[in-house]
Amino acid sequence: MLKKIKIPKQIAFLLALAIVLNIIKIFLFHTTSSVYMFWNIFLAFVPFFISSVLLVSTNKNNIIKPFFIIGFILWFLFLPNAPYVMTDFIHLGRIRAVPIMYDIFFFFSSAYVSLLMGLYSLHHIEKILLLKFSKKVINIIIPVIILFASFGIYLGRFLRFNSWDLFTSHSSLLATIWDIFTKGNTYINVYAYTLLFFAFIYTVYISFKSTKLVV
User: Fold this and answer.
1) How big is the CA angle at 45 (ends 57 and 202), to the nearest 5 degrees?
2) 25 and 98 in contact (C-beta within 8 Å)?
3) What is the spatial distance between Cα 84 and Cα 101, in angstroms, rounded to a whole number?
4) What is the pLDDT of residues 131-147, one digit of tens each?
5) DSSP 112-178
6) Are 37 and 15 in contact (CB under 8 A)?
7) What are the tens digits of pLDDT across the range 95-113?
8) Which one-letter DSSP state was computed for residue 211?
9) Which of 30, 106, 115, 120 has a CA positioned 20 to 30 A from the CA of residue 12?
10) Predicted confidence (pLDDT) at residue 2 exceeds the cutoff of 70
11) What's the distance, CA 1 to chain centroid?
12) What b-and-e string marks burial along 150-186, b requiring 16 or more CB atoms within 10 Å of the CB?
């Protein structure tokens, strides 16, 4: 199965660039301030890997079987980690020892490859769902998925929750989500940022599908 999984060349090249730029940053500027980006990029790779496995192992006859359902749930929970890396631009310029221009290329390459893996991952799932549902239904499902992912980005960036908190700190996570929807004034920015993330990701995804990048 793993031999059938193909990593697009643009992802491979960008992934290598982001990693190399981070390694150079560590040794050339003597700072480990961006080591966390290795972990963030790995988390962005997880939904891409899960969707790739599902794509090569799922057909219209087993789309409702436990393997796909469990895989889809895991993919859904980890999907926000891919576009989330875009928000790491808030760290740009915080370390004065690192030239701002270098950091721009570093953060951009990291955010770009992470977003790209998320777009490919979403397209993998769309291709699978098309085996079972009509195009009209998919045109509803995909925006809903992106909307939930956008909400997940907000939870991660502003409230510092992670995908695995649903398993390790689920009571705290669920309580916070409940408060968001029952005490809107306390979390007034959640709607604005969620819609902002949604508009950007959805627009980029539509553009992505219209190019020849998609396989």
Assistant:
1) 90
2) yes
3) 22
4) 989 999 999 999 999 99
5) HHHHHHHHHHHHHHHHHHTTTS-HHHHHHHHHHHHHHHHHHHHHHHTS---TTHHHHSHHHHHHHHH
6) no
7) 788 899 999 999 999 999 9
8) S
9) 30
10) no
11) 23
12) bbbbbbbbeeebbbebeeeeeeebeeebeebeeeeee
Distance CA 10, CA 72 (A): 25
Q: How many residues does the chain have?
A: 215
Look at residues 201, 151, 150 and name the one whose alpha carbon lies nearest to residue 176.
Answer: 151
Q: Which two tokens stand for residue 81?
A: 């980690």
Own/partner pairs, 193-197, CB within 8 angstroms, 24+ separation: 193/150, 193/153, 193/154, 193/157, 193/158, 194/147, 194/150, 194/151, 194/153, 194/154, 195/150, 196/150, 197/83, 197/149, 197/150, 197/153, 197/154
